[in-house]
């Protein structure tokens, strides 16, 4: 049920974590935990996505028609998409999730990651200042 990150780099990655550089293992661990847990649940269960139904070129202009926005969870729960056992597991998981709580946890982990980056940057700036002073 996890979407392909390569296809959703802008909406699933960059809009959430930004363009900062995450170098340390602690930062990577925080982001991996975020992707595997809260972010994938939030995106797959509560963020609707429009899918392209038709794309037609008329002259020099391209006309696109999209279907109604649905979450990946809603799309996969259609009849004959997946096995009933898997549907039941997903339904139980969906009923346990709270979108507001997921969003708060995502924000908390992102703040923690940014704090790590700020600490790292401050330390490196202090080293440069000490080096310049000597």
Brief characterization of the structure:
The chain has 134 residues and is mainly alpha-helical.
Keywords:
mainly alpha; 63% helix; two-stranded antiparallel sheet; 134 residues; 10% strand; disordered N terminus
Describe the 3D structure.
It contains five helices and two strands; from the N terminus they run H-H-E-E-H-H-H. With 134 residues, the protein is mainly α. It has one domain. The chain has a two-stranded antiparallel ribbon with strand order 1-2. Helix 2 runs antiparallel to helix 5. The longest helix is centred in the C-terminal third of the chain and has 35 residues. The N terminus is likely disordered.
Bin the strand percentage: 5-15%
| Radius of gyration over C-alpha positions, nearest whole angstrom | 21 Å
Q: Based on Cα principal axes, name the global outline.
A: flat
Provide the structure class.
Answer: mainly alpha
Strand segment tally: 2
Q: What is the domain total for the residues? A: 1
| Lateral strand order in the biggest sheet | 1-2
Task: Specify the number of helices.
Answer: 5
Q: N-to-C terminal Cα separation, in Å? A: 56 Å
């Amino acid at each position: 049920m996890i979407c392909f990150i390569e296809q959703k780099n802008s909406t699933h990655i960059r809009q959430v974590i930004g363009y900062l550089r995450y170098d340390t293992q602690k930062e990577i661990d925080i982001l991996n935990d975020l992707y595997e847990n809260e972010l994938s649940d939030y995106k797959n269960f509560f963020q609707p996505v429009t899918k392209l139904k038709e794309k037609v070129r008329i002259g020099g202009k391209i006309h696109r028609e999209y279907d109604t926005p649905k979450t990946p969870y809603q799309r996969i729960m259609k009849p004959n998409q997946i096995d009933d056992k898997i549907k039941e597991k997903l339904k139980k998981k969906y009923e346990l999730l709270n979108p507001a709580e997921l969003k708060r946890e995502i924000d908390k982990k992102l703040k923690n990651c940014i704090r790590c980056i700020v600490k790292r940057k401050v330390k490196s700036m202090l080293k440069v200042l000490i080096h310049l002073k000597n």
